[in-house]
Amino acid sequence: MKSIFGIMSLCILILLGCNNKKDQQIKSIKIDCQKHESFVYSDLFENPEFIPLETTKESIIGGINRIQVSKDYIIILDRDISSSLFVFSRQGKFIRKISSQGKGPGEYISITDFQYHEEEDRMYIYDGEAETVKIFKVDGSFVENVKAGVFASSFRVLDRNRFLFCAFINYSFYITEGKERVLSYREKQDGENSFYFAPSSYMISQNCNEVLACATFSPYIYEVNDNRITPMYYFDFGEYCLPNDFFEKYRKENWKHQVRKKNYCYAFNGLTHNKRYLMFEVFQGRGGCSIFYDRVKGEAYSFNKFKDDLTYIYPRMNMLLGDDKMLCFVEPYKLKNYKKTIKIMGADPDPAIQHQLQDLSERFGESDNPILVIYDLK
Questions:
Q1: pLDDT in tens, 80-97
Q2: How far is CA 265 from the centre of its chain?
C-alpha cells in the first residue's frame, strides 16, 4: 500500500496508453439475467482425462487458488494454507515444492499470485504485501527481486520484467517495467464503480498470446496489447447493472443489502478465455451465475445450473487451456462410493469413464491430493 499513492500520482503525469476513446471498438453484449439456462457438459465437452496429483509428505496441497499448466508442468498455488507453489509433471508426478516464506533475501511474505514463464524457464512470484516480484528457477533457487510498487490481487508476466497488475485500489490496471516504472495505467470507464472488494487471482486471463482482464465492479472486459489497456467488451445487464453512482450513495454501510434488494450483477471474477470462448462468473443479488460468450457466433448465455452428464462428479474451477481443452479439478472425497452415487442419481455414464472413476475411487483416499480433469472441447 505504501507506494501505490505515489504511483497513482505519477500516472496522472504520464500519457495514458488507453485514453483515446475514439479509436476504441467496444463490443456491447446483452445479458438477460432473468433467463438463466442450464449448462450441460456434453454440449461442449468430451473425452475427460483424469490426472491424479501425487500425494507425498511434501506435496500435500491445502487448497487450490490457481492452476497453471505448461508444456512440462502443472503448477498449483496454495495461497491460503501453506503459501506455497507445488510443481508436478504433466502426468501428475510430484517434482518439488517452492516454499520460502519469510522476510529475508529470496523469501516472500506471502504469495498473492504467480506465473511460470516458459521461455525464460522462470517462476515469477508476486508478493503483494511486499509489493515485489520474486523470480525463482523451477528448481526453487532464487534469482532476483523486482520491486513493483503495486498492491494488487492479480498479476501476469507480459515479457521479461514487464508485468500486468490488477490493483486493489479502485481496481486499476498497471503495466510496469523494472523497478517501479509505470508504463501504462487504465483510466476509469463510464459505468464503473470504485470500491474495495477482495477479488480472486482470476481477474486476468492469458491464453493464445492474448491477455484479457476484468475489474470487479466494472461491466467491461479489457484487452492488454503492448502497453495499452483498452476496453474490448461491454456486458450489458440492463436494469441489473450497478448504477454509476452506486457506491457514492451507499458506500460500505449497506451496499450488500442494496445489491440483494435490486438483484444487481457485480463482482466479475474467474475470467478465462481462448480464441473462441470467454467465460467468467458474476454475483447477482444473493446468488450468482456464469457468463459464457461465444466470440465466433457472437452469442452470450447466463448459466446458474450445471449438469455434468459425462462424469457426474461436478469438478470445480473451469479454466480454458489453449484452444481445445477445459481444465477442472475434483477432490477425492467426491469419488467415495461412486457406484452407489450414480445408481442413486439414476445416471448412466460412459462405461469407460465409469471404470476410470471407480478405479480412482478405490486407489485414492479422502486426504489425497485433488485429481485434475481435462476435457476436450467439441
A1: 899 999 999 999 999 999
A2: 19
Alpha carbon separation from 104 to 53, 85, 107, 110 (Å, rounded): 31, 18, 5, 13
Q: What does the pLDDT look like over 25-63, one tens digit per residue? A: 899 999 988 888 889 999 999 999 999 999 999 999 999
User: What tens digit of pLDDT does each residue of 172-189 get?
Assistant: 788 998 776 766 666 555
In terms of C-beta density within 10 A (0-12 exposed, 13-18 middle, 19 or more buried), how is residue 362 classed? exposed
Residue keyed to cell 511460470: 116
CB distance 121 to 138 below 8 Å? yes
Place of cell 480464441: 275
- Contacting residues for 287 by C-beta, under 8 A, at least 6 apart: 304
**What are 48's three cell numbers?**
475427460
pLDDT attached to residue 170: 59
pLDDT at position 356, please?
A: 95
Q: Which pTM value belongs to this model? A: 0.86
What is the rounded CA–CA span in Å between residue 340 and residue 176? 54
Find how far residue 221's CA is from the centre of its chain: 13
Selection from 156, 128, 155, 122 nearest residue 141 by Cα: 122
3-state secondary structure of 139: coil
Nearest to 224 by CA among 310, 305, 154: 154
